[in-house]
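Lecture notes, part 5. Sequence design as translation. It can be helpful to think of inverse folding as translation between two languages: the language of shapes and the language of residues. The source text, in structure tokens, appears below.
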């Protein structure tokens, strides 16, 4: 693993000749016409990278780090994770888990701090699923699933009806949910008491999105409450969008993520699909 700053990553980006790395994490593109290798090598953080053996005096980048950067820049499919804890004074953690061919790499950003590492390789849907689930577990940690009878809600109706805690409670009571369901869902929506990690699937090289990327609209959200872990997923049926909230067991989370990535344009080949350049 490499731990550095946003500036350190910029130095590596310039020396690697990679123009676009991970805009999803708020990282701006490298501009070769005005940002030279000499500028990068003269940056104060370059001394730290040299001392760590990440770059040479001549500006060469460590082979492993260069491979990780290449996977990120040439990715075919990625999962973007946005994690927020109840401690609102801390910045949310943003993570990009990217696949190029069979190689997977993780780039994490919290404030100006970034961490870059290999996540391994996967050549089948099963092995890719195991890899993703392992990364989610590393990010979220372990927590017992909440005791909840699964709830299905109309997404459009929910968004139109709920504006605050009081309207959420009224909406849930109108759905004739039991007291335990109402209590658990109300707690899950309380960002002062519950942590959330939302996972979004992205396919590069698709023609139906900005910058030729398809962003799957149905995110999976892992919610850690004082009563245990929940998982929320969005599905479309009969022309309607639904939100399903279930106990956040490892199996339920894995199933929700698998259904999400299968909704990408590559469908069942999401783990091996190569973008057209």
């Amino acid at each position: 693993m490499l731990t550095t700053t946003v500036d350190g990553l910029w130095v590596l980006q310039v020396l690697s000749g990679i123009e676009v790395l991970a805009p999803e994490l708020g990282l701006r593109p490298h501009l070769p016409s005005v940002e030279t290798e000499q500028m990068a090598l003269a940056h104060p953080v370059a001394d730290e990278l040299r001392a760590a053996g990440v770059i040479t005096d001549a500006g060469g980048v460590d082979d492993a780090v260069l491979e990780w950067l290449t996977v990120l820049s040439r990715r075919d499919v990625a999962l973007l994770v946005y994690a927020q804890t109840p401690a609102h004074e801390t910045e949310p953690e943003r993570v990009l888990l990217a696949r190029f061919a069979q190689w997977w790499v993780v780039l994490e950003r919290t404030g100006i701090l970034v961490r870059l590492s290999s996540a391994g390789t996967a050549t089948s849907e099963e092995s890719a699923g195991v890899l993703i689930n392992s990364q989610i577990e590393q990010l979220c940690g372990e927590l017992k699933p909440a005791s909840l009878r699964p709830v299905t809600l109309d997404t459009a109706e929910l968004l139109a009806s709920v504006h605050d805690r009081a309207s959420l409670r009224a909406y849930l009571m109108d759905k004739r949910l039991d007291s335990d369901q109402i209590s658990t869902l109300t707690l899950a929506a309380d960002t002062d008491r519950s942590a959330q990690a939302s996972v979004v699937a992205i396919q590069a090289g698709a023609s139906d999105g900005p910058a030729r990327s398809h962003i799957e609209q149905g995110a999976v959200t892992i919610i850690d409450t004082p009563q245990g872990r929940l998982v929320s997923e969005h599905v479309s049926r009969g022309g309607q969008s639904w939100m399903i909230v279930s106990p956040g067991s490892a199996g339920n989370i894995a199933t929700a993520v698998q259904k999400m990535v299968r909704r990408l344009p590559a469908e069942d080949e999401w783990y091996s699909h190569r973008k057209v350049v």
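The translated text above is only one of many valid answers, since several sequences can fold into similar shapes. The two ends are 29 Å apart (CA to CA).
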